UniProtKB/TrEMBL annotation:
Classification via Pfam families: ABC_tran (PF00005)
Keywords: ATP-binding, Coiled coil, Nucleotide-binding, Repeat
Top-level taxon of the source organism: Bacteria
Annotated coiled-coil segments of the chain: 222-277
Protein name per its UniProtKB record: ABC transporter domain-containing protein
GO molecular function: ATP binding; ATP hydrolysis activity
UniProt cross-references to InterPro entries, sorted A to Z: AAA+_ATPase (IPR003593), ABC_transporter-like_ATP-bd (IPR003439), ABC_transporter-like_CS (IPR017871), ABCF (IPR050611), P-loop_NTPase (IPR027417)
Ranges for domain ABC transporter: 8-224
Gene3D superfamilies hit by this protein: P-loop containing nucleotide triphosphate hydrolases
Length: 481
């Protein structure tokens, strides 16, 4: 159980990302010693920003943040930084410390065992799969043995075995932990409280219990607020009707009518602001490329990684319109590499029919131009400059006028994911290739995305380690790597 001592406290903290992007407004919350807490909220609300405020990387514009004396902190980020990809494993862990750690290899070996990963210490980070990189990011925080462990979407790219291993580790973790995740089942296995960043009020709501408890509590509160307002609305209308009636009587009745109106105004002011839920993307369809028929892709051979060695395999995969393939296998076997080769037409054992447009959703979004704006990124996949269609599709994915002209590189990972889906809708592909499309995406959006993928009329190849998501999608064939 968490102790009574507070190790972290936000006091009326306000912070803005630029003049028109408020993230926090007089936010208050505290974390008790030993507590394991989930930090939740809509994509782009500012959860990762809160982590940076906690560590001191960012400074509040108003208010204060109190940290326990000598509190050590370490963050496992969502994705490997691009400028770190050329580092070796040993370099990566050495850079976790401000001062050189001599004889660091035994420490690295011990922490990699904790995250269930075997790795050559001289291997470069770019040579690891997304799931393996996720384990390295987690290990980079654990090796510092912090008092407060900050995990940003730690289950992204992890296979089921990796998620189970991480869950067991966090259950046994003796110190404080704050986790950003959209995986409610994962969070409920070890957290005992929720910090909910409200995208509308820019405040942090603090709850005891797991996320499902919070959802129930919020639902009860919303219904209570609605009932209270409905009762007030009824009383307000009664007072207005009486005021109108008495006003027409003249004399002293006019004074009574005035009091009735004043009472109605007081009731109006006392109405409560009903808590609004996070916005959800609207239902959408990914249109199928017109005019393509017959076999869209044929896979006769592919390669996998087996204990560090490349092995060739044969296959008999032929995908036509309305056929969906799931690629399955553990982290590090080569699923993302295969998808990249297929999307780029570089796989020697695969052939995409001439003229077929490929829609490729990369788990690291590296096929997006990070220096381009959201608007230009969407425009780049349109054959015709249909401004009305572009903005309608953008709005479906919560791409509002507030950030449609933002740089892709300035967006949260979740917002990048929504931009990538909007691109697929505008592209109208004949072949859809998706690598972990649930990563970073708010779980409220996932049923809508699953429905769109299930109904996609073209050929589709999917990689996903989320069984609940896959179960909602029509899959015609599974290739187990």
């Amino acid at each position: 159980m968490a102790g009574n001592e507070s190790i972290l406290k936000f006091n009326n903290v306000s912070f803005n990302h630029g003049p028109n992007r408020p993230i926090l407004s007089e936010a208050n919350f505290s974390v008790r010693r030993g507590a394991k807490v989930a930090l939740m909220g809509q994509n782009g609300a500012g959860k990762s920003t809160i982590f940076k405020l906690i560590t001191g990387e960012l400074v509040p514009e108003e208010g204060s943040i109190n940290r326990a004396s000598r509190l050590s902190m370490a963050t496992a980020e969502q994705v490997m930084r691009r400028d770190h990809l050329d580092w070796t494993v040993r370099d990566f862990f050495q850079n976790c410390f401000k001062e050189t750690v001599y004889d660091i290899d035994p420490k690295i070996e011990a922490v990699l065992e904790v995250v269930n990963l075997q790795a050559d210490f001289n291997r470069q980070l770019k040579d690891f799969s997304g799931g393996q990189q996720a384990r390295l990011l987690l290990a980079s925080a654990l090796i510092q043995e912090p008092d407060l462990l900050l995990l940003d979407e730690p289950t992204n790219n992890l296979d089921q075995a990796g998620i189970e291993h991480l869950t067991q580790m966090l259950v046994a973790y003796k110190k404080n932990c704050i986790v950003i995740s959209h995986d409610a089942d994962f969070l409920n296995a070890f957290t005992e409280g929720v910090l909910y960043l409200d995208v509308f009020t820019k405040t942090v709501e603090q709850y005891v219990g797991n996320y499902f408890d919070v959802v129930r509590e919020i639902s009860v509160r919303v219904e209570k607020e609605k009932r209270k307002n409905a009762q007030m609305d009824k009383k307000i209308q009664e007072n207005k009707d009486k005021a109108n009636f008495f006003a027409n009587k003249g004399g002293r009745m006019r004074l009574l009518a005035k009091r009735m109106r004043e009472e109605a105004e007081d009731l109006e002011e006392n109405k409560v602001d009903v808590r609004r839920e996070d916005a959800t993307i609207r239902s959408f369809k990914i249109p199928f490329q017109e005019g393509v028929v017959g076999e869209l892709i044929n896979i006769s051979a592919y390669q996998i990684m087996d204990q560090g060695k490349v092995k060739s395999k044969t296959a008999k995969i032929s995908l036509k319109k309305n056929q969906h393939l799931l690629l399955a296998g553990p982290n590090g076997i080569g699923k993302s590499t295969l998808l990249e080769q297929l999307a780029g037409g570089q796989s020697k054992g695969a052939k995409i029919a001439p003229g077929v447009k490929v829609g490729y959703y990369r788990q690291d979004f590296s096929n997006l131009d990070f220096d381009s704006t959201v608007y230009n990124s969407l425009l780049s996949v349109l054959l015709d400059h249909d401004e009305e269609r572009l903005r309608a599709v953008a709005a479906n994915f919560l791409i509002t006028k507030d950030f449609i002209h933002s740089r892709i590189g300035d967006l949260s990972e979740g917002q990048k994911g929504l931009v990538a889906f909007a691109q697929l809708v505008l592209l109208k592909p004949g072949l859809l290739i998706l690598d972990e499309p649930t990563n970073h995406i708010n779980f409220r959006h996932l049923p809508i995305i699953a429905k769109a993928l299930s109904e996609y009329a073209g050929a589709m190849i999917l990689v996903s380690h989320v069984p609940e998501f896959v179960s909602q999608i029509r899959i015609d064939e599974v290739l187990e790597l």
